[in-house]
Design goal:
This protein has helices at about 5-15, 25-30, 35-45, 60-65; strands spanning about 20-25, 45-50, 70-75. The protein has a 3-stranded parallel beta sheet with strand order 1-2-3. Helix 4 (about 60-65) links the parallel strand 2 (about 45-50) and strand 3 (about 70-75). It is of the alpha/beta class and about 80 residues long.
Amino acid sequence: SYTVDTLRHVRAQIPDVDLWLITGADAAMTLPRWHEIEQLLALCRIAVVERPGYSFNRDALVRQIPAAHNRIETFV
């Protein structure tokens, strides 16, 4: 299933919590290609964890997905 579908299911089960999706920097740079990414961002915030050998460019990602502006946090 798509991540957005899983998040919809979780949101329906527990509507009053802040949901976070934790992902590595390598996967985060593919977010523009994720299924229904803007709906996913409406359901949760994303924690991007830097990984050795991968750089994460938050500004480049936000240029591609403006809805990500206040929805993504980077952790080292």
